[in-house]
From TrEMBL:
GO terms for cellular component: plasma membrane. The chain crosses the membrane at residues 15-33, 40-57, 63-84, 129-151, 157-177, 210-231, 243-260, 309-328. The lineage of its organism: Bacteria, Bacillati, Actinomycetota, Actinomycetes, Micromonosporales. Belongs to the UPF0718 family. The keyword Lyase does not apply. This is Permease. Keywords: Cell membrane, Membrane, Transmembrane, Transmembrane helix. It is found in: Cell membrane.
Length: 329
C-alpha cells in the first residue's frame, strides 16, 4: 500500500504577488502606455521626477543593503533559545524587554516575522514575541541613523520616532495579554531555515530581502517622485494644511507603499509639504503595518490573527504618533 504524500508548505502557499511581480507589471505598463505618459509629463515635470527618484534611491540603498545583511545574520546565527533565556517569565514584564531587544537585535520587517515565529516556538510568550516583531524594524540603530541622515535639520525626528515606535509596540504587546485569544494565533509550524546549512540560509535570506525590499524601495521612490512631479502643488497643500487629513493620508500611504524601514525616512523627508508630525506617523506606521507585513503575518500566524492584529496596530500607531508628535515635534 502506498502512502499519499502530504502537500508541502510551498505547494500550499502557491504563487504570491510580490514586489518583483509589481515591478514587472509596472515596466510593461510604462512600455505599453509610453505615448500617453509622455504627453502627461512635461519636460520639467519629468526632470523633477527623475531628480527626486534618484535622490531617494541613492540615499536609501546603502542603509537597505546593510540592514538586510544584518537581519540575515540575526535570523540565521542568533539561536532562538536566546530570547527565552533572557526574557522575564511574567508576560507583562517580558513585553518591554522584548521591545527593547529591537535596539540590540535589529532586523527589517521582512526578518522580524520569522524571528518572532522562532521565539514563539522556543516558548516565548506571544505578547513579547509580537512586541519584538513590531519594535525591531522601527527602533534599531540602522533605522535611527538613516532617519538622522534623512532629517539633518530636525534631530528631534529621531527621538520622536524611537519613542513613538517603542510605546506603540509595548501597547500592542500588553493589549495582546489583555484581549488576545489563543484560537486567533496559529503557532508557526517549523523553523524558517530548516534543512539548510547556515551559509545557504544566510545568502538565501540576503537574496530574498534584497529583491523584495529593494523592489518596494523602488516603488516607494517612484510614488514619492510622482507626488512631487505630477500631483498639483495646491492639492498636496490642501491635504497637508489639514492636520487630520495629513496624518490619515500619510498613514495610509505608509501601508500602501510597504517600504523597508531602513529606507522609508528618505521617502518621508521628500514629502516636505507635510508637517513633521504627519511624517512621523508615516515612519511609525510603515514598519508595523503595511501590505507585505500583513501578508507575511497571515501566512505565518494565520489569517484570523492578521485580520485583527493589523487594524489594531494601525490605530495604536497613529494615535501614539500624534501624541508623541504633539509633545516632541
Amino acid at each position: 500500500m502506498t502512502q499519499t504524500e502530504e502537500p508541502t508548505d510551498a505547494t500550499k502557499q502557491g504563487w504570491r504577488f510580490g514586489s518583483v511581480e509589481a515591478l514587472a507589471l509596472l515596466l510593461i505598463a510604462v512600455v505599453v502606455f509610453q505615448g500617453p505618459i509622455s504627453d502627461v509629463l512635461s519636460q520639467a515635470a519629468l526632470a523633477t521626477w527623475a531628480t527626486v527618484f534618484i535622490a531617494i534611491v541613492t540615499q536609501a540603498m546603502p542603509f537597505l543593503v546593510f540592514g538586510v545583511v544584518l537581519s540575515a545574520v540575526i535570523a540565521v546565527f542568533v539561536p532562538a533559545s536566546f530570547f527565552a533565556r533572557v526574557l522575564p517569565s511574567k508576560p507583562a514584564l517580558a513585553v518591554p524587554v522584548a521591545t527593547g531587544a529591537g535596539v540590540v537585535l535589529p532586523g527589517c520587517e521582512c526578518a522580524s516575522v520569522p524571528v518572532a515565529g522562532a521565539m514563539m516556538r522556543r516558548g516565548v510568550t506571544p505578547a513579547a514575541a509580537l512586541a519584538f516583531l513590531l519594535a525591531a524594524p522601527a527602533i534599531n540603530p540602522i533605522v535611527m541613523v538613516a532617519t538622522a541622515v534623512a532629517f539633518p535639520g530636525n534631530p528631534e525626528m529621531v527621538v520622536a520616532r524611537f519613542v513613538a515606535s517603542l510605546i506603540a509596540a509595548c501597547i500592542m504587546g500588553w493589549l495582546w495579554i489583555r484581549l488576545g485569544r489563543t484560537e486567533w494565533l496559529k503557532p508557526p509550524s517549523r523553523p524558517s531555515f530548516e534543512g539548510q546549512g547556515r551559509a545557504a540560509a544566510f545568502w538565501g535570506s540576503v537574496r530574498h530581502d534584497i529583491i523584495h525590499a529593494g523592489g518596494f524601495l523602488v516603488l516607494g521612490g517612484m510614488a514619492a517622485a510622482t507626488l512631487k512631479a505630477v500631483v498639483p502643488e495646491e492639492w498636496l497643500s490642501a491635504v497637508a494644511d489639514n492636520p487630520v487629513l495629513a496624518v490619515i493620508a500619510l498613514a495610509l500611504l505608509a501601508v500602501l507603499l510597504s517600504i523597508c524601514s531602513e529606507a522609508d525616512a528618505f521617502v518621508a523627508a521628500s514629502l516636505s509639504q507635510f508637517s513633521l508630525s504627519a511624517r512621523l506617523t508615516f515612519l511609525v506606521v510603515g514598519p508595523m503595518v503595511d501590505l507585505k507585513l500583513i501578508a507575511m503575518q497571515a501566512g505565518t500566524f494565520g489569517r484570523s490573527f492578521a485580520m485583527r492584529f493589523a487594524p489594531a496596530t494601525f490605530a495604536v500607531a497613529v494615535l501614539v504618533s500624534v501624541a508623541v508628535g504633539a509633545v516632541i515635534l
